[in-house]
Amino acid sequence: MGQKCENATLEILELLFLANSKPDSKKPAVLAEADLKLKVLQTLVRICSDVRAIEKNTYISLEETLEEIGRMLGGWIKSLK
Length: 81
Hints:
With about 80 residues, the protein is mainly α. Helices cover about 85% and strands about 0% of the residues. It has helices spanning about 1-20, 25-50, 55-80. The longest helix has 24 residues, at about 25-50.
């Protein structure tokens, strides 16, 4: 499960770098994919908490960070519309 979370995180980071290098007309598609991967990562982190693979405090910290990333990503997507 930890490996899946790490892979999802790296995929999101890669998509964000890719979106940053694309022209504005092509960014929304890449950012939408990054947003989907972020939702998958949030679900994986929640599952890790549910099966007690991570402590509650760690889950809370991760979830707050992922929510902030989601807000920033949403703002980037809105700014392109």
